[in-house]
Amino acid sequence: MTSLAVPLLWSLPWVVPPIAAAMRSRRSRALDEFSAVVPDPAPPVSVIIPARNERRNIERCVRSVLASRYPALEVIVVDDHSTDGTGEIAGDIARGDARLRVVPAPDLPAGWFGKQWACATGAAEARGELLLFTDADTRHGDDLLPRAVNAMRARGADLFTIAGHQETHSFWERVIQPQLFALLSIRYGGTEHVNDAKRPADVIANGQYILVRRDAYDAIGGHALVRDQVAEDLALAQEFFRAGRRVVLMLAMRQFSTHMYASLGEIVRGWRKNIYAGGRNAMLGGAAGRLAYPFVLIALPLTGLLPPLALVLSAAGVLSDAWMLWSAVVVAVALLFWIAVYRFIGEPVWYALLYPLGLAMLGYIAVGAVVKGRKVEWKERKYLSS
Q1: Which domains does the chain have, with CATH numbers?
Q2: Would you give the end-to-end CA distance of the chain in angstroms?
Q3: DSSP readout, 211-252?
Q4: At 138, phi and psi to the nearest 5?
Q5: What burial letters (b/e) apply to 188-219, b meaning 16+ CB within 10 Å?
Q6: How many other CB atoms are found less than 10 A from the CB of residue 356?
Q7: pLDDT exceeds 60 at position 355
Q8: Bridge partners of 213?
Q9: Closest listed residue to residue 25, CA positions, set 283, 345, 347
Q10: Tens-place pLDDT, residues 203-256
């Protein structure tokens, strides 16, 4: 074996995953394929928005839902003991639109997470044949719901979910957020890999937008079945799959967007809440995989940082030419991957150059998440995830 072949061979564990993820993502389908004409007859849809201290987001979300072209619509905002005026803002809108109701969430029962309890509360109030659970930090296009209902029917889904545009308005959002969604892409591939899944571990839902058939939701036990899961969307999709129900994921980049976090602190706290306790349930290998997950979670960003570090040290003459070749190949592929990611999400491609910084921040988030373990803190509440 030649001196060049060895470092090239060693580059494969780093270059194959992003290349494979890019190729698998080509097997994705989008809502653009489906008609925006309202189906006739149009099944009644109840849109349920759990909201706890969402003053910054609630008006934008509610007004975008109410602007839908879909006629058979009711909107239920479940005010989960907000202290920032969220309920009052939603109530002001409700006074001008009879389709909107604001429902106060009862006191949180033991063993429940707040979001699941708010969703269950909204479902109990809902009259729709279809239930749409959506987050308060989302924005809906006026053609989104007609397309989603048409797609749900055409694809025979019991649970229909979408991946939309993730809004990034600040430096740290643009550096860190793509890292997390790239991990999801590498894990799950394109939408059709999820839709053709043969085992529960390979399905996923986006809790920002989950549309379900009411009869299927009630039959499996609704949100009570996942009441103590930090990643309730993932868990709900897996429970639908286990019950023999069809789960369908599609892209909706033009019809749907979410602004998850607005600051570095929010990003760190938000992902530390989800990335460990929720990620364990997405891990392959059963109990052994879940046991290994903390090490895998920390190892991923560390191994990603090795090539750029080796490239710098090689350029400085600290490491040999073989290290230079290995690291140059890996970094070049990584840059091409991140350029493609930033082009896809519509952000400046020069952020691809900062992918090592994103990996470092991912490592920081991962370490903190592992230290917390199953203990979850979110919006002034403390939980223990199962």
Answers
A1: 5-23+284-384 (no CATH), 27-282 (3.90.550.10)
A2: 50
A3: EEEHHHHHHHTGGGGGTT-SSHHHHHHHHHHHTT--EEEEEE
A4: -105, 160
A5: bbbbbbbbebeebbbbbbbbbbbbbbbebbee
A6: 18
A7: yes
A8: 130
A9: 345
A10: 999 999 999 999 999 999 999 999 999 889 999 999 999 999 999 999 999 999
pLDDT value at 200 more than 80: yes
Order of all β-strands in the sheet with 73-79: 100-104, 73-79, 45-51, 130-134, 209-213, 159-166, 247-258, 138-140
Q: Residue 148: its pLDDT value, please?
A: 98
Quote the tokens at residue 366.
Answer: 């991962």
Residue 338 CA to residue 334 CA, distance in Å, equals: 6
Claim: this prediction has a pTM higher than 0.90: yes
Identity of the amino acid at 246 = R
pLDDT per position as a tens digit, 83-123: 999 999 999 999 999 999 999 999 999 999 999 999 999 99
Interatomic CA distance for residues 86 and 58, integer angstroms: 7
Q: Say whether pLDDT at 1 is over 70.
A: no
For 26-56, what is each residue's pLDDT tens digit? 889 999 999 999 998 999 999 999 999 999 9
Sign of CA dihedral 281, 283, 287, 291: negative
- Three-state SS at 13: helix
* C-alpha 96: how far from chain center: 32
Residue 6 has pLDDT above 80, yes or no: no
DSSP secondary structure string for all residues of 70-100: -SSEEEEEEE-S-SSSHHHHHHHHHTT-TTE
Query: What is the rounded CA–CA span in Å between residue 79 and residue 104?
Result: 5
